[in-house]
Amino acid sequence: MSKDIRIRKGLDLKLKGEAGHKLVTAPRSSVYAVKPPDFHAVVPKLILKEGAAVKAGEIIFYSKYDEAVKFAAPVSGTISEIVRGAKRRVMEVRIQADASDTFYEHGSMDPLQADPTAVRTRLLESGCWPFIIQRPYDIVAGPEDTPKAIFISAYTSAPLAGDVDFILKDRKEAFQAGVNALSRLTEGKVHLCIGKKSNLSDIKNVEVHKVKGPHPAGNVGVQIHKLDPINFGEKVWAVGAEDVATIGNLFLTGKFDAVRTVALAGTEVAEEKRHYYTTKIGAKVSDLVGEVNTQETRIISGDVLTGDQINNDQYLNYYHNTVTLIPEGNEYAFLGWLPFTRNDVPSISGTSLSWLTGGKSKVNTNLNGEERALVVTGEMEEVMPMNIYPMQLIKACMAGDIESMENLGIYEVAPEDFALIDYVNTSKIEAQEIIRLGLDLMITEVG
Amino acid sequence: MNWVRAKLDQARKPFEPGEKYEKFAPAINAFDTFLFTPNHTTKKGAHIRDVVDLKRTMITVVLALIPALLFGMWNTGAQYLYQERGLASVMDVPFWDAFIEGAILVMPLIIVSYVVGLTIEFIFAIYRGHEVNEGYLVTGLLIPMIFPVDIPLWMLALSVAFAVLIGKEAFGGTGMNILNPALTARAFAFFAYPLYMSGNAIWVHEGSTDAISGETILGSLASGQYDGSVMGSAANSVAFAAPVEEASVLSNISFDDMFYGTIPGSVAETSALLVILGAIILIATKVGSWRIILGGIIGGLAMGAIFNFFGNLGNDFITNLVESGAITLDQVYNDAGAVAGLGLSGWDATLMELGTNQLINFPFWQHMVVGSILFGVVFMATDPVSAAQTFKGKWIYGILIGFFGIMIRIFNPAYPEGIMLAILLMNVFAPTIDHYVVQANVGKRKKRLKKAQAQLQTA
């Protein structure tokens, strides 16, 4: 029997600059990039060198420590440049795109009829495997593992983030095929969490749950916690909703078509451009938003709470379906600490009258204060809907106390679950970063 | 404001990294960030941030303290002039006379507290190379508010230095301290200079027991002087109808006086009304924990009611004795020999003591408006650093503070104001409370794991 989720703790930030429900095909970028740093804890081993021709869906590198995990080109063309960072770490594999895509053919397959191993092999060989994220640790799933459950969140709660329902409105058949494929990977259940008015409520081979409540209700971590929490030694997988459709498309057509529907949001995007754009994974961001003065405007691949800051000449993150442009807030505020001033910034605290003024706010990237010691208590708990003590977990992570981290529920969280804590905490600590470092420590120490 | 900003930028130059006064940057930063919220932008994590920061939080607490402080200034002046001029009522003192007199008495305390405390804070910030934390904005104001007005300034300065150095910086600075710094200052002064911190003459400027006493209600209750004129409970009527050896100078104090605060006491603790206003500000702005405040009040009322219950038992016992003609009411209170002659033993003697103890019989709800229990619960117990940090922990912590506050008040006639000790005691136990609350959560997780493993094995 399906179980609905209702959460009360959290915070819905009402921000200006939402993308309108209109789907536009974005102009094809001349260059696309796959960025190995998007895949946490993956060290890439390149298969193709600069100058090599690639087809869309052809494998370009694999994971050094798990050779079965392969990563495919989103478009066809030529590998134009391999950008390396410190210690020759591969940062980007850039592909000069052809005018239209030539696909690497895998042949269609009905996942419900096929052998589960064949489904798994198909996902690995096609480069679709990296869509599957493992909890704990928030990393690409291990190809040999069998999860106790698979979760798909089709409910958007993050501020200004792409609305999954809208993104999937014409891709229901592919989504169903993707769900069918995923259902062969686990002996447990596949859970699909949807909003109240979702048109995905009749999807089969899954357990559908309705989700209600403020952000982070849409976070898959919260949904896992409510429905089937992770214990030590257990693994749960999560797949993004549009990625499920991409996987489904692979089984229906035999092609890895890296379509990505991106919501272009934020107050710094002209209203007539604030829509949803169909593009491909790794598209150059300036082809979507135009040239932006990054001194005044921040380009974020992802939403304002968890996204990555990028420049004009950078590319969409592999997993993101939102690009947000907000003003940089590098300005001083005279006596900005006075209570009941600056009421335009949404605040969980009562020292701002934002709750009274209501409405949507225009926000910028100002830190609104300085980093301080952890003094104020209780505010983190206000926005943490999981049965977890966030401050104690953060402190355990800071101290590198593995036993405490385990006891306090590190296996159940990902950095995104602490994004609102980043937002609300008075001390301006970087909770997401602390949790990420904590998870990395667990990977090295516990595995 | 651009020219102020430009001037500040110019003034900051010698403090920039690599410049001559780089080491002193925290000092100039403190002034700079006081005038302007800095232009720092997010680098990692969430790209947008709430407008609340530690400065705003601390200023809000200061704001919540201001009404009680202003009233405290007026009351300090009024109590002194009422005594000096021999007026019939505190309210007869002209408002501005009282306020100005009080401000003259209280301001030096505030100035000394801030100067000494902030100097130490700045030195530590420069020494440790971190920014000046705003916590002392509140501590620095709280300290003079909970001291008697006549405390010599050097004693105050030493108490402040002790609180900041030993109470806070020794533990690693703001956010690391175990005890509430303001109460640490008061506890230091209480044990180091008891003559200036307790007794019946210190609570009013130049207080004199010969003329009009500067004694607090709790002090007189503890010493058995109180005649119970404000008592409302019929159950207590026998005990408090008893003649008091010496007519109390406080007999004209009404419940309203206690509620509004026109009574002797520490500088700013007396007015329940304005402390409640402060509590409303703290709770509405979510700066103070309503769980701790409500818990403290519930705990205090519960403990007071428990004592009242035993007091009533004692009253009934005395009433029976008097009605049976074994002894007169006058003898109960004034003739120890007559009482001894009854040969009471065990439980009966205890009942006799309970019935005659004025603090036990003080109605539980009135405990809330005398002394500093309300002030302590609202402004001291809610200090988030030294309080319990979990929601459940805050409830337990608050309730126990109220509980122990009243218990110490009643059990310790030498020091009837028990809330300070109760809060300090619970400060020490707060981490333990949190530990058990968190362990309960850990236990749940472990239980879940065990269940999951059992299911796996059966599968």
UniProtKB/TrEMBL annotation, chain A:
GO biological process, one term: sodium ion transport
EC id: 7.2.1.1
Key word Acetylation present: no
Domain Na(+)-translocating NADH-quinone reductase subunit A C-terminal: 261-310
Keywords assigned: Ion transport, NAD, Sodium, Sodium transport, Translocase, Transport, Ubiquinone
Enzyme class, broadest EC rank: translocase
Stretches assigned to the NqrA N-terminal barrel-sandwich hybrid domain: 5-98
Every NqrA second alpha/beta domain range: 117-256
Transmembrane segments: none
GO MF annotations, alphabetized: oxidoreductase activity, acting on NAD(P)H, quinone or similar compound as acceptor
Role played: NQR complex catalyzes the reduction of ubiquinone-1 to ubiquinol by two successive reactions, coupled with the transport of Na(+) ions from the cytoplasm to the periplasm. NqrA to NqrE are probably involved in the second step, the conversion of ubisemiquinone to ubiquinol.
Name assigned to this protein: Na(+)-translocating NADH-quinone reductase subunit A
UniProt source species: Nonlabens ponticola
UniProtKB/TrEMBL annotation, chain B:
Main location: membrane
Cellular component terms per the entry's GO annotation: plasma membrane
Catalytic reaction equation(s): a ubiquinone + n Na(+)(in) + NADH + H(+) = a ubiquinol + n Na(+)(out) + NAD(+)
Subcellular location: Cell membrane
Any single Pfam family the record assigns to this protein: NQR2_RnfD_RnfE
EC number: 7.2.1.1
Keyword terms: Cell inner membrane, Cell membrane, Flavoprotein, FMN, Ion transport, Membrane, NAD, Oxidoreductase, Phosphoprotein, Sodium, Sodium transport, Translocase, Transmembrane, Transmembrane helix, Transport, Ubiquinone
Chain segments annotated as transmembrane: 58-82, 103-127, 139-166, 178-196, 258-285, 292-311, 364-382, 394-412, 418-438
Physiological role: NQR complex catalyzes the reduction of ubiquinone-1 to ubiquinol by two successive reactions, coupled with the transport of Na(+) ions from the cytoplasm to the periplasm. NqrA to NqrE are probably involved in the second step, the conversion of ubisemiquinone to ubiquinol.
Family: Belongs to the NqrB/RnfD family.
Alphabetical list of NCBIfam families matching this protein: nqrB
Name the UniProt record assigns to this protein: Na(+)-translocating NADH-quinone reductase subunit B
Record organism: Nonlabens ponticola
Gene: nqrB
